[in-house]
Amino acid sequence: MKTDLTVNGEARQVEHESRTTLLDALRDHLDLTGTKKGCDHGQCGACTVLVNGRRVNSCLSLAAMHDGDEITTIEGLGEPGALNTLQEAFVNKDGYQCGYCTPGQIMSATAMLEEARDGAPSHVSETLTGSVPLTDAEIAERMSGNLCRCSAYPFIREAIAMSAEKKS
Amino acid sequence: MTETFRMDKAQARLLDETGQGVIGTPMDRPDGPQKVSGRARYAADGTPEGTAHGVLVRATITKGKVAAIHADSISDLPGVIGVVSGPEFIRNPAQGMANAAPVQPGTRVDYHGQPIALVVGESFEAARDGALRLKVDFEAEAGADVDPDTASEVETGDPSAVGDWDSAFDGAAFKVDREFTTAAQVAAAMEPHAAIAEWQGDKLLLRSSLQMLRFNKNEIADSLGIPAENVQILAPFVGGGFGSKLGIGPDAVAAAQAARELGRPVRVVMPRQAVFDSILRRTETTQRVRFAADADGKLRAVGHDDRVSNLWEEGFAEPTSSCSQFLYGADALRFQQSLARNHRTPTGSVRAPGEAVGMLTFEAALDELAEQLDIDPVELRLKNLPDTHPMTGQAFSSRGLAECLRRGAEEFGWSARGKPGARREGDWFIGVGMASAGRPNMLIQASARVRLEAGGATVETDMTDIGTGTYAIFAQIAGEMLGLSADRVTVRLGDTDLPGASGSGGSFGASSSGSAVFLAARKIRAKLAEAMGCDADELTLQDGIARGGNREMAISDLVQSEIVEEAQIEAGKTAESHFSAGYGAHFVEVAVHAWTGEVRVRRMLGIMDIGRVLNEKTARSQAVGGMVWGLGAALTEEISHDPRTGHIVTRDLANYHVASHADVPAQMEVSFLDNRDDEANPMQSRGVGELGISGAGAAVFNAIHNACGVRLYDFPATPDKVIAGLEALGL
């Protein structure tokens, strides 16, 4: 079957089996291997991409469900020599070690910052309405779907906070 | 043939004399931009033209044999190419530094989940479908031992002991004698084990996620029955290893065998559940820790016995008491290990084998002794630091444990510690705990080549960077030695066609392989000195300028075309005369919920002595990573086995809980002593990757006790155990 996607701003058509996940379509059909497979069960977050601006575990979503959708992967944010603010902050704060969960952390953080800016509450928010101050506890709660076995967590969160500060 | 440098005596501290000023700095990783932009390519990223996809089929019995594999049961499935199996298949990954094939069981099945065949398809989806549907006949044998507690075959070693243990223990006024249990754990690297195998004639090109390529090359060659020179392995990026990728895995052997039979490249990626089932795990342990002391806190006897498990024909036994044998002195010490054989997923090295579980119990029992003696736990440790290795009599190389303990107590605010249960904030009991850290330091044979050209230098070795910072550190070592900024050094790693390094394991990678880089660069310095007409001692290299013998020249003008030097290092006499180890002290604050038993770590501080720090930023990340592993071991990480089959029940990342963002506080602080280990290697550095775990979980346990008075002896401290402890205290 064929699915039309807009990936990182570019129109792409993928020919795939009905059972192909969005993750495998990106990795194996479009050679966008920056998005990683860590568990294939939506438990680790390494495969996080943006679908129409919202973060999604691409391993839990079939490619066929995304006809006409806009997908943003890590390759769409910035490249060596022209990294975006968040990517630069990860390098500066050593917000990774092996680097395997990193694309998922960065994609997840990208959407998470938008969610927080839009006032979406989390489990640890003081209030369900009104603005959300982006404390470390807020970032930790909102990023807990992204595992990092190297355990760079404090530095990942410092990088996210640093990038949020720079942008505001 | 490159001459081998043996570490027979302490070397001059050259890195303190060089002037570039890049060694030790918190430099960003040069490979960082590739990692944060998704450009870093790991084992399964990108496939050669015509690649077929393989999915492993695994045993659904515990013990017995594979009677028949019915390939025809899936031959009609669209996209399925075929089924591959055979005597080349390995039962489980090779143990670290095995350098030869692991057990190849043929049709025999030794544990539930053992890989037995590979289904290959045109697509991953087809192969997965085929693997799920393949009909296999097993002949199961009943009555397989799957529980180490009731195992019928137990190998008990002779005790290693000094002093008259019985009289030292019996005669002391204060004693602790406790039995502990620790749960089995897994490495759970984020990148699953994966391989892409491609044959060019009789030569195998293997891309695989591996830690120790020099050994892995021989392991896969031996598994396939081909000469090692016909194998090239590439692993430029490795998505975490933690010991689980020390040896060649079933994915690589199956991919290579299938690619050979089919005449096309084959990719095999292990699903997460297969990684849990079929990759070496950390053993569960039962431990008995005994301390005896005088009223003044002087230790009279130290005992640490342990029982671990493994599958038959595996040589590995978790060295549980490794640290207990040298941290503290006593009149008598005694250590004894038993190994129970069983048909569970076999055990092997998982980050800090030995200390990771041994220090949990040892340092928790010492905390109990301190309470009994009414002596501050920091003070008790300081009182019992030995002058020489208590078991071997070796001199210690530099040993900063006392300073770590004192500095940690000061920086943490340890003196404010109250009695158990004294501090409460709402529904939370608040408490603090501490523990020592230790990890033996090793020098493993390693080679590296350095090229100096007019434009800069290149470092070449088959060493891996598994997140440890090798790319950064080697650029810093070569840059420091050759008077170049680190951005003028290119580091090439992870290719077996390059000189063979130590590999990443046992925290010895940076120091061992880094020393080979250091020595190769030192040889280039000698050549440059010769060209300058001065002694090597007089030569200074900084920012591309060479100075010596009253002359000053651009290094680029001294290099005709290029200077290439290779060096090899191995351990020598200092490894016998001196005992080298990393040391540290952990301090932790926890909150224990009075009603739910939930434990939250609020802050951790680690003071570490790792000799010379090569990169302050990557070292800190390693240490904090280890401390988080300690947190996980103390609170959540637990493999459960089905009591009927031995099969792992908690076989994914939802059921096996590694620490997540929400478990780890922002306040995870680490600082390093400015120390040098002259006997360790020519750079005076030591390993850091495993030191952070050692003792960290014990500090969490000790803090739980200080918070609410509950002492637990079964790791991890899940809420059910904490609640039972609180109820027993009437809380």
UniProtKB/TrEMBL annotation, chain A:
Keyword Nucleotide-binding: no
PANTHER family: OXIDOREDUCTASE, IRON-SULPHUR BINDING SUBUNIT-RELATED-RELATED
The species this protein was found in: Allosediminivita pacifica
PROSITE patterns according to UniProt: 2FE2S_FER_1, 2FE2S_FER_2
Keyword Metal-binding attached: yes
Protein name, as recorded: Xanthine dehydrogenase YagT iron-sulfur-binding subunit
Record domain 2Fe-2S ferredoxin-type: where: 1-77
Alphabetic keyword roster: 2Fe-2S, Iron, Iron-sulfur, Metal-binding, Oxidoreductase
One MF annotation (Gene Ontology) recorded for this entry: oxidoreductase activity, acting on the aldehyde or oxo group of donors
Gene3D superfamilies (alphabetical): 3.10.20.30, [2Fe-2S]-binding domain
Coiled coil: none
TrEMBL record, chain B:
Database matches in InterPro entries: Ald_Oxase/Xan_DH_a/b, Ald_Oxase/Xan_DH_a/b_sf, Ald_Oxase/xanthine_DH-like, AldOxase/xan_DH_MoCoBD1, AldOxase/xan_DH_MoCoBD2, AldOxase/xan_DH_Mopterin-bd_sf
A Pfam short name: Ald_Xan_dh_C
Gene3D superfamilies, per the entry: Aldehyde oxidase/xanthine dehydrogenase, a/b hammerhead, Aldehyde oxidase/xanthine dehydrogenase, molybdopterin binding domain
Region feature Disordered, mapped onto this chain: 20-39
GO terms for MF: iron ion binding; oxidoreductase activity
Domain Aldehyde oxidase/xanthine dehydrogenase a/b hammerhead: 37-142
Protein name (database record): Xanthine dehydrogenase molybdenum binding subunit apoprotein
Lineage, broadest ranks: Bacteria, Pseudomonadati, Pseudomonadota, Alphaproteobacteria, Rhodobacterales
